[in-house]
Design brief:
The complex is a heterodimer of chains A (about 500) and B (about 100).
Chain A (H helix, E strand, L loop, with lengths): L10 H10 L4 H16 L8 E4 L3 H14 L10 E5 L26 H8 L3 E6 L33 H8 L5 E6 L5 H7 L2 E4 L19 E6 L2 H11 L30 E5 L9 H16 L3 E5 L7 H16 L17 H13 L2 H14 L4 H24 L4 E5 L14 H5 L6 H6 L3 E9 L2 E8 L5 H15 L6
Parallel strand pairs in A: 2-3, 2-4, 7-8, 7-9
Antiparallel strand pairs in A: 1-3, 4-6, 5-6, 5-10, 9-11, 10-11
Helix pairs in contact in A: 2-3, 5-6, 9-11, 9-12
Chain B lengths: L4 H10 L9 H15 L44 E2 L2 E2 L9 H6 L2
Antiparallel strand pairs in B: 1-2
Helix pairs in contact in B: 1-2
The chains are: A alpha/beta (about 500), B mainly alpha (about 100).
Chain lengths: ~500, ~100
């Protein structure tokens, strides 16, 4: 076995080692857990961990025992995994980074977590996040801002910043996050790791605390493409508890793990994602990645997605509208915080919600309620849903014209300093290259393509609905082509 | 786009949020500033364009209105703010008599 830290061993090798007995699941998990407690939590550290799983070591023993007793201990046997804190777990609280759910332990578990456990993965920690996934920097957490392990004065991105940073810091080899407008891919780009948002309906949302139900998907972080592919493989597929999961067969995402070439593959380069104003460092790294794809046999074709500029206005109408409805359940009655009021039930609702929600969540609930209210519904919400059709049609057109995958920058900037972005709309623009895929429901992923000014830069592949296998194939080849250059 | 403090007060009421009067002007300015960026949508021709209804490859599949029960890993008392005899306790509505209101939590 390699002499590198245990969490840097590929997921495939951890599982193989645990299954054949050459690697102790307990040792792997204990090191991840200790590491998480040591540098991952608290204001003095990276503040990326909100809770650790006290049962993790025992769970590792159970996996090892199953491996000894049976032939199959799972594809992720003994693999420690961190979970964004909006994914329901039985052994750890699920706070969504909010005061309103402080200490809340869910009475059920997310399907994605169940599937991970059934394949031997060990949930070791819950990670910090923007409150209810509303943010692009993990500064909006009620438990304080998380820090980027590459440069601790900077944000890790968001809203799944804790999960991205946990993988980047080597606390865990893989983690789950969630996406509504780019909340896996953008922090993956900021932290220099791989982040995957699957097709809408590919992974069950059962147990993912709802934000924007027509946009939300659980996503995966990994140190490398293969790690993420193997985790998605396990969590993907139909779930009777989420009727929006698709009854579409799950391809083998790691079948192209050894691919060297992309002959016959058409990679689209959408002009709208490479505007004149694009940061020169990001542009040059993306151009280098496109050159690498060409050298490996891909045809790079200039394409247009003409409604891209509508993505942020549409997203910031649709997502808050859905959030204002979804977050109505936090009322002080059924779970979480309750603030009694002298004004009876109405007062209890209002006091609980006002005390429990932070400023950005409050802002988005107000915005969402406004665009859904009488007199504004047609002008904003209905208009945005029609414009959303135009965005989805853009993707349909380019893929129907023979493009297999698109390649773009993941984010318009590298990780910015904590506290640097104070204007809400300026923060929303962080999602400018990612929100389109959520609005259209197509899969997309970010992988490291180099560093600009010492900070990681991510490149993004976008594929047609359920085209994850082709997307991973392109990512495997690009990762191999760039080699160490992807991290310098 | 102009949003008045009273508009924010109205929307906050609809959303069941108690917003301090002193915060209304700032919130009105913030919301107006955000909504200004949405005005671009008014210039887009969406005549004949159907609003999105589903985002998957097909429409949302229907299923019978039944499903396996979800086993609870923790009892209701462990996560609900106030429970009595297995029931969630809520304050009495203001329309009830004062005597009853006094007994409410």
């Amino acid at each position: 076995m390699s002499s590198s830290p245990l969490t840097e061993i590929p997921v495939r090798d951890i599982a193989r080692g645990v299954r054949d007995g050459s690697l102790s699941a307990r040792t792997v998990v204990e090191r991840a857990f200790d590491h998480a407690c040591e540098i991952g939590s608290g204001a003095g550290g990276l503040n990326i961990i909100l809770a650790g799983n006290e049962r993790a070591a025992d769970m590792a023993d159970e996996v090892a025992e199953t491996a000894q007793r049976t032939e199959f201990a799972g594809r992720l046997a003994g693999v420690p995994v961190a979970l964004k804190d909006n994914i329901a777990t039985l052994d750890m609280p699920t706070t969504c980074g909010s005061r309103i759910l402080e200490g809340y332990v869910s009475p059920f578990e997310a399907t994605a977590v169940t599937r991970l456990r059934e394949h031997g993965a060990i949930p070791v920690a819950k990670t910090n996040m923007d409150e209810f996934a509303m943010g692009s920097s993990t500064e909006n957490s009620a438990y304080g801002p998380a820090r980027n392990p590459v440069d601790t004065s900077r944000v890790p991105g968001g809203s799944s910043g804790g999960s991205a940073a946990a993988v980047a810091a080597g606390l865990v080899p893989v983690a789950l996050g969630s996406e509504t407008g780019g909340s896996v891919r953008q922090p993956a780009s900021f932290c220099g790791v791989v982040g995957v948002k699957p097709t809408y309906g590919r992974v069950s949302r059962f147990g993912l605390v709802a934000f924007g139900s027509s946009l939300d998907q659980i996503g995966v972080f990994g140190r490398r493409v293969d790690d993420a592919a193997r985790v998605l493989q396990v969590i993907a597929g139909r779930d009777v508890r989420d009727s929006t999961t698709a009854d579409v067969p799950v391809d083998t995402y790691y079948s192209a793990a050894n691919a060297e070439r992309l002959d016959g593959v058409v990679v689209g380069r959408p002009a709208e994602y490479f505007p004149e104003s694009l940061d020169p460092g990001i542009r040059s790294l993306c151009d280098r990645a496109l050159d690498a794809l060409r050298e490996r046999g891909a045809e790079v074709r200039d394409v247009s997605l003409p409604h891209t500029d509508l993505a942020i206005p549409v997203y910031y109408i649709v997502a808050p509208a859905e959030a204002s409805s979804n977050l109505a359940r936090f009322d002080g009655i059924r779970y979480g915080l309750r603030v009694p009021s002298e004004r009876g039930l109405a007062g209890l609702y209002e006091e609980t919600r006002s005390r429990g929600f932070g400023p950005e969540v409050t802002r988005r609930i107000l915005l969402g309620t406004y665009v859904l209210s009488a007199g504004y519904y047609d002008a904003y919400y209905r208009k945005a849903q029609a414009a959303r059709t135009l965005i989805a049609d853009d993707f349909r057109s380019v893929f129907q014209a023979g493009v297999h995958v698109l390649f773009t920058p993941t984010a318009p900037s590298t990780a910015f300093p904590i506290g640097a972005v104070t204007d809400p709309y300026e923060m929303y623009l962080s999602d400018i290259f990612t929100a389109t895929a959520n609005l259209a429901g197509v899969p997309a992923m970010s992988l490291p393509v180099g560093r600009s000014g010492g900070l990681p830069v991510g490149g993004q592949f976008i594929a047609p609905h359920f085209g994850e296998a082709k997307m991973f194939e392109a990512a495997y080849v690009l990762e191999r082509a760039l080699g160490e250059d992807a991290h310098r | 786009m102009s949003i008045r403090p009273e508009d924010v007060r109205h929307v906050a009421h609809l959303a069941r949020l108690a917003v301090d009067e002193s915060r209304l002007p700032a919130l009105a300015t913030q919301l107006a500033s955000i909504l200004e960026h949405m005005e671009v949508l008014q210039r887009v021709d969406t005549n004949g364009v159907a609003p999105v209804e589903g985002v998957g490859a097909g429409s949302t599949p229907l299923r019978p209105d039944s499903g396996p029960p979800i086993p609870l890993g923790h009892p209701i008392e462990s996560f609900a703010p106030e429970v009595r005899d297995g029931l969630l306790i809520v304050p009495r509505l203001a329309t009830h008599g004062e005597e009853e209101a006094e007994r409410s939590p």
